[in-house]
Write a structure and sequence with these properties.
alpha/beta, TIM Barrel, 8-stranded parallel β-sheet, about 10% strand
Amino acid sequence: MGKQNKKIRELLASHDYLIAPCAYDALSARAIQTAGFPVAGTTGYGMHGVVLGQPDTGQLALNETVSMLSKMVDAVDIPLLADAEGGYGSAMNVIRTVREYEKTGVAGLFIEDQKQPPNCPFIKAPEVISTEEMVGKIQAAVATREDPDMLIIARTDAPFEEAIERANAYMEAGADMVKILPKTRQELEALPPRVNGPIHLGLYAHKGINDGLTAADCGKMGYKIITFPVSCLFAQTAALLDLLHYMKEHETDEGYPGRTMEFADYLKFIGVDRFREMWEKYVRE
């Protein structure tokens, strides 16, 4: 633990901005690394889908998330930034959350200021706790982490003007970075100059907020980490449904017109050679 924390700090210092597609299990994390990205985020929305088969309604428990994160970290060599929801309760819960998350080896985590249980803002309009309560959570998180290189990111779901005030208060409380959800293109463009610290931004297609913009465009605006929270999740789900609909209609997978992967290519992607080496070295028949 700590190696990836130092790496994320080095990446932030040496890059104007970082692109971090969001993973939701070990396989998607490995795909992000294989594609060449230097860092990966995670998505609570996707993790709810993978584990519970439901949208992000705050139902995943701390132990379930920690178990998933530990497997995701073990699957890759790049830093992983984790969704810690609202810290799973009060500032006292945040203390345990940071301890448990740090054990997994994640390079950073973000905590949001929604009332508990949190929910995806695209499902239900979020309600936020007071600034004072959230400041206490941030201070608890900063004081609890053992490795100062681990990023503590504070997310706010407050309306625009209030979000700016809260973001600056959260930076003063010790957060390394803030995450704000702009509601319009105008808010997206106006935020960076008014926030006293680096900003973590999530891009969503077809929402009318960042349509036509690339991560480079957002980096030039002043955003430091740009994530794609649901892109991998939606693409994989669409591909899976396409294949299954074809199989249902034709009762075979032969002739499927969509893109797929050969068996040997999957074995290479999943790292089979390393396991073969371990088998030959250690297993005694």
